Predict the structure.
Amino acid sequence: MIDEQKYLVLEGLKAGVSLRVKPDFYDSLPYIFSHWPYEITSTPSEVFASLEWSDERYRLSSPFMDRVDRYREPVNAICAIVAELAWARLREDPSLLCLHGAAADFAGRLVVFPATRRAGKSTLSVAMNAAGIRMFTDDFLPVFVSGAGIISGISSGVSPRLRLPVPEQIGENAKAYMARRKTLSNKQYTYVSPLKTENASFNESAPIGGFVFLEREDGASAELKEISTADALKTIIKQNFSRAGNAGDILTMLQFLSHNLPSYLLRYDHAEPAIEILKQKFSAWSEDIPRYKPRAMLENEAENGQRTFSVYRNVSYGQFEQAEGVEVVSTDGQSFLTGRNGQSIHYLNEGAAMMWQILSEPTSMEEAVEILLEAFPGQKRGQIERDVKSCFKDFAKNGLLNRISSAEPAKMVAE
């Protein structure tokens, strides 16, 4: 039996989720939104997604999704809704940056654990809860800059989710903890609902204090070691999923975080010894909280970062140079820059970074080939020509080039 049309409205969001579901669906919600207040209402609401029970499936659709997703069980449907909620928060407040990862409160500041595949961030999150560490999220962390320049993370209010089967490495303490807490499970996942004092409430904030990148390896002894600023920045950029914000602002903020906050790699197997190392390392903070000063807007730049830029269909003739208004960040010999009308961030490998440097002055493809042949006399001309052409085309596609003189008019693009 399908219940009447209702709406899931969560605190802090204008738009909700339209629901036409079986009545037992609502029984799942308190387990997932344990720290995010919500209401089920019959009053029509602005919606960002719709969930409907039809043909023995939950069908999740949204104007912001490429397709309709289908799920047999409410747990899987809610997992998908949680992911869409992260995007909904960003759409309603484009000033937020959002990082994919977990975050825990150590001595009043957040240690962020950026997501890496199968590294165990959610398992470690539950184990940290069991060890008395207060969690802000195990999945996505909205980030904002206060008026005083303090970069802080915001609690998601969503319960941690474990992929099943729960690994033995979670430890006996966490197993006992889970046995004492409410859980909601199916064959794939289990949600663990912390007590009110064990996780931060929705929208609670705390300054970001550092980053720990996880690497779980069977049989490894727990070890925490510093990593380079460039490695930290590259990973943080990959785990940022803000899209509406200005890429220049995002890049400079992430560079500030990676340069001014400590970053470590935690290699481990079992959660409990890893947590002891974290407790010792972050028992106190010796440095003051760094203050971030937002970058000045570029000339003719809209608040959302949009600028008119040129896209060239043919890069085989004429001289090119670096396009104006591109933010460039170099760290430990590695470079990142904004492109595509200020809406994307690009990592430059060694060859692309060299090409970008060459383009600091007007240069044709032929001239670039000759420069590189002189710099690398052992390389074959054909390979260098292919590499130069590929790099020019990629730069042009992303609006990073300006042609000095051309018989062909550029196609103007404004996104």
Observations:
- The chain has a mean pLDDT of 87.
